[in-house]
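Posting for a labmate who doesn't have an account.
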Amino acid sequence: MTEGATLIVEFDSQEPCPIDFLGPTSDLVYFMSFAHSERYGSIHELSQAAAVLKRQLRIDLSPLLIFGDARATDSQEEKALQTLWQDAAPLAESARKTADALSMDTQFKELVKEYPALVERLQELADMAAWAAERGAHVRLTYLL
């Protein structure tokens, strides 16, 4: 992955979300990607962190794993993008619990040290999703590389 990975958060609400990321989102895109590949045997440090979050701390990461490439090149990919909409409340909870665990549990210090903005971006994502949940809105996560 490149340095320019960007997470795009969309809402199906009538009003624009007043919360935004306060910095680059590449650390968050990397975490989501490696958390997804953990189930396929990835041994990357972010995959290892995801494994501990899921298996030892029992945090449901599945809302963070619903994402896709923002660029659709054909109608089939466009249809796939439409399947990425999800309820906001579970995403808010997952992002918040993940951020809390990563920032408070010392076992993660070494695993996430190369991703200094990860916790802050997770907290911001949690705030955005909570805002959407309060309005009954859905959220879609996509990325650009």
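Reply:
Got it, the structure tokens are right above this. The chain has one domain: 6-144.
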